[in-house]
Design goal:
This protein is an alpha/beta fold and 225 residues long. It has five helices and seven strands, in the order E-H-E-H-E-E-H-E-E-E-H-H. The two termini are 13 Å apart. 32% of the residues are buried. The structure holds inosinic acid. The site of inosinic acid has 13 residues, from strand 3.
């Protein structure tokens, strides 16, 4: 079975490939020559992951089932596509930032912090987002939250959605430098260290993404039976 993962993130691709059962090959967007920007205009994680999967499926199949990439000589014969979307859902903020997790601080321009030496734009975004999370929870007793990943699989014309959740809480300050995004302020349930401090092997076993991919694998395995 040959599937496209609607991502070019090398880290995610590696993680997902390592979890796939034998007989499932995963291609990146780059490997199928997909170079378009996809507008994530949805208002939920479910909508955004579906928008991404549909855009890539449309690209592969030329919109009418007469596959540009899938048909003819040398066609890649792609069986399906899947895309993920992740959000941080904070209890005390009624599930925010949710679908806005990646660009949370940008909703409040005054929050932009100075770019420190050696920081890329992406690092600055992560830095500002974490600062916003700490500020929003200042003085709040309930620091509970969860990371939720939704994966939309389109295969044989059918759409299936699965999700993975890791519950935890927002730390009082940043700890550790591992991982990315909100990792230095997220303490998963059952641990007293942040994802920024825990070894990657632990994070990769219990993370929202790993759990969503586990659910995806269950769906794929059913089609082998
Ligand atoms: P995406 O849908 O995977 O691009 O994730 C959206 C945003 O959620 C990212 O830009 C990060 O800010 C945050 N995020 C996703 N996964 C993680 C994670 O494993 N650790 C920390 N932050 C994450």
């Amino acid at each position: 079975m040959r599937l496209v993962f609607a991502s070019n993130n090398a880290h995610k691709l590696e993680e997902v490939r390592a979890m796939m059962p034998a007989g499932v090959e995963v291609l990146s967007l780059r490997e199928i020559g997909f170079e378009h920007e996809i507008d994530e205009t949805g208002t939920t994680l479910e909508e955004n992951s579906a928008i991404k999967s549909e855009a890539v499926w449309e690209f592969i199949n030329g919109g009418n089932g007469d596959a540009a990439l899938n048909g003819g000589n040398g066609g890649l014969m792609i069986d399906g596509v899947f895309a993920d979307d992740t959000g941080l859902e904070i209890n005390a903020l009624c599930g925010e930032p949710g679908v806005y997790t990646a660009r949370w601080y940008k909703l409040e321009p005054t929050l932009t912090l100075p770019k420190e030496k050696g920081m890329t734009d992406e690092m600055l975004t992560f830095h500002c987002n974490r600062a916003k999370a700490l500020r929003e929870l200042e003085g709040k007793e309930d620091r509970g939250c969860q990371f939720r990943t939704v994966i939309t699989l389109i295969r044989k014309g059918e759409t299936t959605q699965v999700e993975g959740i890791v519950r935890g809480r927002i730390a009082e300050q940043e700890f550790g430098e591992g991982g990315f995004g909100y990792d230095p302020v997220f303490i998963p349930e059952g641990y007293d260290k942040t994802f920024g401090e825990l070894p990657a092997e632990i994070k990769n076993q219990i993370s929202h993404r790993a759990r969503a991919v586990e659910e995806l694998v269950k769906v794929l395995k059913k089609s082998f039976i």
